[in-house]
Fold this sequence. Notes:
By secondary structure, this protein is α/β, with parallel strands linked by helices.
Amino acid sequence: xxxxxxxxxxxxxxxxxxxxxxxxxxxxxxxxxxxxxxxxxxxxxxxxxxxxxxxxxxxxxxxxxxxxxxxxxxxxxxxxxxxxxxxxxxxxxxxxxxxxxxxxxxxxxxxxxxxxxxxxxxxxxxxxxxxxxxxxxxxxxxxxxxxxxxxxxxxxxxxxxxxxxxxxxxxxxxxxxxxxxxxxxxxxxxxxxxxxxxxxxxxxxxxxxxxxxxxxxxxxxxxxxx
Length: 226
């Protein structure tokens, strides 16, 4: 963790719908996240935490306010520019793993590299290194059906970090895992944060999962609780 600001939100709002059907999911959020932070975002259903996560990951845009990522004003970017930012700066992990079913672990991890112009040899080498870094050096030929839930999530993490992102966004990353596997995955994320300096922003509803973060943000009714 450093004092270098990675993400800075100022008075961020997000409104869905219009007129009588309008719903304000975020109501003026201020948030600063430094490079190397491991942040857990918590809150009840409908609190705005998923909306906040989507905005931070450039999957959605705010209705108003300022979002700076590495001093780039994100709300002014067009759709293609936001896509480029996601591709080069962000990695994503989901509760459901989101692996291609008939594709090997190695090929799943290579997917983000296909859009970057790497040669086949370079993609193989980088994907193998990523799989080794999550403890799966011997599973590169296995398909998801041949892997346990924890192994599938490790493949998903390898895919998310293969491009060396600045930030890793994890949406309920242990939601489909048992308690023992949850422990393994959280220890892995903690190690990636400490040893590789990857900033991690994680949505979770589990206090014991949030305890692995060095900072917890609680969202309620579209605002961050003070």
